[in-house]
Amino acid sequence: MLVVIFLLASILMVTGTIWFLFPFALRKIAEKQLERKCRETRSIVLSYDDGPGSDLTHKLLDELADENILASFFVLGKNAEGKAETLCRLMAAGHDVGSHTFLHTNAWKATPWVVNRDIVAGISVVQRSGGHSRLFRPPFGKMTLASLYLCKRLGLQVVWWTVDSRDSWNRRPINDVLSEIEAKGGGVVLMHDFDDYVKAPQNPSHADHVISLTREIIAFAKRGNYRIVPYSSLGEENAGQVRI
């Protein structure tokens, strides 16, 4: 009986390692490669998840247009529905518009079929809108073997980040974010462009903080002669140079 229990436990451990840890290990490798690419090209990518917001996204678009800068937006299908004008404005300006699923399902906390259905639904919204249907950012950065396989089968490019601003949950001081970008020689910065919410009210508001953070990163890039590019242009040497 003990031998059977031991064998079952071993099988579960091996299965869990493959199911969760293998995709996690691939993520860490990809993040290191992303860090190196940003460092070698002195690049910063401004990326925004969970939008589009009815108000904040448009304010960000105004800020970015004023500076002639392109960014990357990973939209939630449920937030993108009914916001055709916002999506059109994002794409007309030349920003990346990728998918962040439809409902923001955590792949580590749901069944594979629920997760995969959410991924496909989110991609469909972006595809119908004319966005970058191959750019995909997993909610919470979580993937399993099943979601990883789906991404490979659909030809998706999974987009990670290297600098987490934590603007949506445990806000970091802006100077801390800038210090990390400087220490890493660039990076893909994670922010969120959903409108303010009441779950965790803070001062300044979420929207004001994200706009301030965006402005400060742009100013930092100008001072340090970094270029700011959308993720899709990260490998292009002359893309998106910040104009001083």
Description:
With 244 residues, the chain is α/β, with parallel strands linked by helices. It has helices at residues 2-41, 56-66, 77-80, 84-93, 112-129, 145-154, 174-184, 206-224; strands spanning 43-49, 72-75, 96-99, 135-136, 157-158, 163-164, 187-192, 227-228. Strands 1, 2, 3, 6, 7 and 8 form a 6-stranded parallel sheet that branches. The protein has a two-stranded parallel sheet with strand order 4-5. Strand 6, helix 7 and strand 7 form a beta-alpha-beta unit. Helix 2 packs parallel to helix 4 and helix 2 runs parallel beside helix 8 (206-224). Mean pLDDT is 89; it is low at 2-12 and 238-244.
Short description:
This protein has 244 residues and is an alpha/beta fold.
Biggest sheet details: 6 strands, parallel
Q: Classify the beta-strand content into a percent band.
A: 5-15%
**Spatial extent as radius of gyration:** 19 Å
End-to-end C-alpha gap:
72 Å
Mean pLDDT: 89
Determine the number of helices (DSSP H or I, runs of at least 4 residues). 8
Q: What structural class do the secondary elements suggest?
A: alpha/beta
- Shape by Cα distribution: globular
Order of helices and strands: HEHEHHEHEHEEHEHE
How many DSSP-defined strands?
A: 8
Helix content: 40-55%
Which stretches of 5+ consecutive residues score pLDDT under 50? Answer: 2-12, 238-244
Defining traits:
244 residues; alpha/beta; two-stranded parallel ribbon; 8 helices; disordered N terminus; disordered C terminus
